[in-house]
Amino acid sequence: MHDAIDQLVRTDQDAAIWQKVKEGRRIGDDEALYLYDQADLGFTAALANWLREQKHQHRTYFNRNIHIEPTNVCIYTCKFCSYSRLIKQRSEGWEYTKEQMLEILSGQKQKEITEVHIVGGVLPQYDLSFYADLFREIKSLYPALHIKSLTPVEMHYIFKKAKKSVEEGLMILKEAGLDSLPGGGAEIFDEEIRQQICADKCGTEDWLKIHKAWHQLGGRSNATILYGHIESYAHRVDHMRRLRDLQDQTGGFQTFIPLKFRNKDNEMSHIPEVTTLEDMKNYAVSRLYLDNFDHIKSYWPMLGREMAQLSLSFGVDDLDGTIDDTTKIYSMAGSEEQNPAMTTEELVLLIQRAGRLPVERDTLYRILKEYTEPLVAGPSRPYYALPVVNH
């Protein structure tokens, strides 16, 4: 495989970056910008795929999960958001009670889910005591179920409302049953861009502070970026650098999830969406730059199934989970997946058809099952097995 990549080297900069990647050395900001703006995408993809296979061989991870979104009514007005409704528009949204959310969860008993992902809009009634009570009730009914919940945007609001410090608020939620944090709310860390697209919610410093404090309590979390709107490549690199720096300090991040801006029915609808090639480039550069992140995830409800499948050749090793038709965040923004749900068998087959090894994991990436035997495939799209190899 080295020889194949050597043949893609076109410039001295290509050669220098490839040498660093081979030797396990960190690429810098200027090199990341070069990969974004000047390098051939085939070269960047080959490096990202090589590094992905060094870390995970052909393994591609997923889990059995459900998303519960308590509400899409929100006090904040992010210009890129197609999902939320203002309080004055609350008749167009939903506001679940604890009982309604527990009822949604009870309908998943037969599906052997291992994770519930709970994020939503910010409203006064969804306060610290509400979530602590909800987590306790979930744990009393499903002790083994992993609760991944609340972005720093939600936490910043509920901790302030409860007059609790970040550390105090996190301890209350941890003791109530919170197991890990999702990566949402990061958007883009550059403060000037943030002022233009989401000025009224918690800022970069608060986002990073909350994740750092959670890591210091021994917790794990994810990280995201919202890309493809008014940011530049330099803004993307700056965003990843801040994450990489924090990861150097704490080691608490598990996976990085690039989230594509979708332009349907929001205040930024005049901005065209970036191309699929740009999506793939972003995954590849993310894999190469974030050397201290174990996993890069493509969120299939955002990309659509075929593009998520393609991303597995651009550094991605995780496709999220079964979701089970429970998230509206991207379907309301115009994503290809209007009713996002896949069975375990569908996810396994999707991964196998990309020539990868499906691996069912729990939220903390402990392996539950490797699907080494191919599922029965339809005649039009046969399964091609690739061996798990070390280079």
Distance between the termini: 7 Å
CATH fold topology of the largest domain: TIM Barrel
Percentage of residues in strands:
5-15%
Number of helices: 15
- Give the number of domains: 2
List low-pLDDT spans: 327-335, 378-391
- Rough shape? globular
> H/E element string?
HHHHEEHEHEHHEHHEHEHEHHEHEE
Q: Roughly what is the average pLDDT, rounded to an integer?
A: 89
Question: Can you identify the CATH superfamily of the largest domain?
Answer: Aldolase class I
CATH class of the largest domain: Alpha Beta
Rounded Rg: 21 Å
Provide the spatial order of strands within the biggest beta sheet: 9-1-10-11
Question: Approximately how much helix is present in the residues?
Answer: 40-55%
Secondary-structure-based class equals: alpha/beta
Biggest pleated-sheet summary: 4 strands, mixed
CATH architecture of the largest domain: Alpha-Beta Barrel
What can you tell me about this protein's structure?
The chain is an alpha/beta fold and 391 residues long. The chain folds into 2 domains: 2-54, no CATH class; 57-370, TIM Barrel. It is 41% helix and 13% strand. It contains 15 helices and 11 strands. The strands form 3 sheets. It has a 4-stranded mixed beta sheet, covered by helices on one side. Strands 5-6-7-8 form a 4-stranded parallel beta sheet. Strands 2-3-4 form a 3-stranded parallel beta sheet, covered by helices on one side. Strand 2 (65-68), helix 5 (98-106) and strand 3 form a beta-alpha-beta unit. Helix 3 runs antiparallel to helix 12, helix 6 packs parallel to helix 8 and helix 7 (152-161) packs across helix 10. The N and C termini lie close together (7 Å). Mean pLDDT is 89; it is low at 327-335 and 378-391.
